[in-house]
Design a protein that fits this description.
single chain; about 180 residues; mainly alpha
Length: about 180
Amino acid sequence: MHDRGELFEELAFEVAEPLRRYVARRTDPDTVQDVVADTFLVLWRRLDDVPESGALSWCYAVARLCLNNAQRAQRRQRGLLARVAMLDAPRSETAPDDSVADIELHEALSRLSEDDRELLRLWAWESLTPTEISTVLGISANAVSIRLHRARKRLLAQLATPAGNAHDPPGHREVQERRPP
């Protein structure tokens, strides 16, 4: 009887190269290591579920699912980056080729709080996960998810509001000093 670590090492040694080739034929070189690593993580976690004969095909099935997840994430990231690429991009005041949509998006972003802009930048530009963002900002991953959801909603609301009619969100208005009569 093998201990868990030895069994994992034996299986990993057995399937590593065929698994790497399987994934490499299906994706770009940058993604191969991530998918193989994710597959090995699942292999470690579900070691008891691996059939005694057919470990390689079981790993192929897991790798296929991991690859699908990676490709979905890449599609979402590309789509998001295409939409957000101009969110906080530097603009020249004299740039005549700025489209109306680019200008509106930049103005909508500028009307958000700095916290919202930073959260959106970490997520969209830096491609960080909520867990990674939580490390950067020093808050919980759950708080990041909630704040990110709200920041995206506020950005969409700002995009729907013409720049001249933008209102400060409740609770964020400047307090004017009252002067006695």
